[in-house]
């Protein structure tokens, strides 16, 4: 292992021109931006960010039928009450796609979505970072077919990973389907998984299919709803690797969320998941604690930036921030108290605590507990940001937030939350 070159990092910025509020396919733009570097990469990771663009977001979804993109935008408007700041934060401003054999490891029907949420559009900067892993590609990247018993949320923490895991790093799991997703949530009580499925069905009701709200209706009432759920939750999840093993919080597990009654197109409930792990040591991995102090959003940009500045200088790389809790999450959103307050209000409207009485089973820890699990899944426990010249590439308008979803904090933690921060990149 020591005789082969270490991971190489390439960062480039490409500009996407948008003319109006819409969702644009950006797969070709990402591929062109990486050029020959992508073609020569056997195993690696492509990371795309629009964290400097306050009106934009990124997702992976269906690349064939443009009606999916129109329906997606309409659904997002209803879910977020038409608020562009909330929508861009909820969908997410970054995404990670494994690279295998010189190509983005996208599924047959998958494409990169650029959400433009400003009415006028504009010139939008996308930062694309390619991590090309050295070592034996058979040990750093792997495909696995995971069988879901049926529609619902399934615990798959023991899903196969790759062999060449470092002492400290990050594992990336990527689902190659547009109607199934991956998330991190509670690994103990199966009622959490039942309740999460029920909550998703209320957030994205299949009645929209029957009411004429959706255009994309050819594959049944669970199809377009599944596309929306996949975008809300995400196709990929990144998990810290510590002492050579994927490492999560005490109560955390990896979920495969199957959003269709009959599974994916031509595949039933068998879902392909790609796992890639950089076999080389991260420049830095550190666990920090953040005292939330209250429910809502807490700006942790400076906390994380201070760790980056103190522990290692990095010219080009990726900073991974992972929340070790199932009722808190991390998000990039607009700077300021106005956004912090309206994002918290939006989450409470999307996942109301009245559901604790109406249909939730997992209710023993109070009315904010199961809603906290749902919010954690749709916001996300894991976030990766590009690093340029030793600085997190967030721009002036956006900040990194910890989202505390409980009034009294998590089980045995109060309002103290643990975050694992991992830096992978090239030293300055």
TrEMBL record:
Pfam families tied to this protein: YjbQ
Gene3D superfamilies: YjbQ-like
Domain of life of the native organism: Eukaryota
Family: Belongs to the UPF0047 family.
UniProt xrefs under NCBIfam families: TIGR00149_YjbQ (TIGR00149)
Name this polypeptide is given: Secondary thiamine-phosphate synthase enzyme
């Amino acid at each position: 292992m020591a005789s082969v070159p270490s991971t190489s990092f390439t960062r480039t910025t490409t500009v996407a021109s948008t003319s109006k509020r819409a969702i644009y396919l950006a797969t070709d733009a990402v591929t062109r931006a990486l050029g020959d570097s992508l073609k020569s990469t056997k195993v690696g990771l492509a990371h795309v960010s629009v964290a400097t663009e306050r009106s934009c977001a990124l997702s992976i979804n269906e690349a064939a039928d443009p009606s999916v993109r129109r329906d997606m935008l309409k659904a997002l408007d209803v879910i977020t009450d038409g608020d562009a700041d909330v929508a861009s934060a909820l969908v997410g401003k970054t995404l990670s796609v494994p690279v295998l054999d010189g190509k983005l490891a996208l599924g047959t029907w998958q494409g990169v979505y650029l959400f433009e949420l400003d009415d006028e559009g504009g010139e939008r900067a996308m930062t694309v970072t390619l991590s090309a892993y050295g070592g034996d590609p058979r040990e750093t990247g792997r495909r696995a077919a995971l069988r879901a018993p049926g529609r619902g949320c399934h615990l798959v923490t023991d899903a196969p990973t790759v062999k060449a895991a470092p002492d400290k790093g990050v594992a990336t799991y990527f689902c190659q389907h547009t109607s199934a997703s991956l998330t991190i949530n509670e690994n103990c009580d199966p009622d959490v998984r039942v309740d999460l499925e029920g909550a998703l069905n209320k957030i994205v009701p299949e009645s929209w299919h029957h009411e004429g709200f959706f255009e994309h209706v050819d594959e049944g009432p669970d199809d377009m709803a599944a596309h929306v759920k996949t975008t809300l939750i995400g196709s990929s999840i990144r998990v810290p690797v510590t002492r050579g093993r994927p490492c999560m919080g005490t109560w955390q597990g990896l979920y495969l969320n199957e959003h269709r009654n009959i599974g994916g197109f031509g595949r039933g409930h068998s879902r392909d998941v790609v796992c890639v792990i950089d076999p080389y040591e991260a420049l830095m991995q550190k666990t920090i604690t953040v005292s939330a102090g209250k429910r809502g959003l807490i700006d942790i940009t400076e906390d994380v930036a201070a760790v980056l500045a103190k522990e290692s200088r990095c010219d080009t790389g990726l900073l991974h921030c992972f929340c070790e809790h199932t009722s808190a999450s991390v998000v990039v959103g607009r700077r300021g108290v106005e956004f912090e307050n309206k994002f918290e209000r939006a989450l409470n409207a999307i996942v109301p605590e009245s559901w604790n009485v109406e249909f939730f089973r997992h209710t023993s820890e109070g009315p904010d507990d199961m809603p906290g699990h749902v919010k954690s899944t749709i916001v996300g426990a894991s976030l990766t940001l590009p690093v340029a010249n030793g600085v997190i590439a967030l721009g002036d308008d956006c900040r990194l937030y910890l989202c505390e979803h409980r009034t009294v904090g998590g089980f045995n933690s109060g309002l103290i939350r643990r975050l694992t921060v991992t830096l992978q990149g090239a030293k300055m």
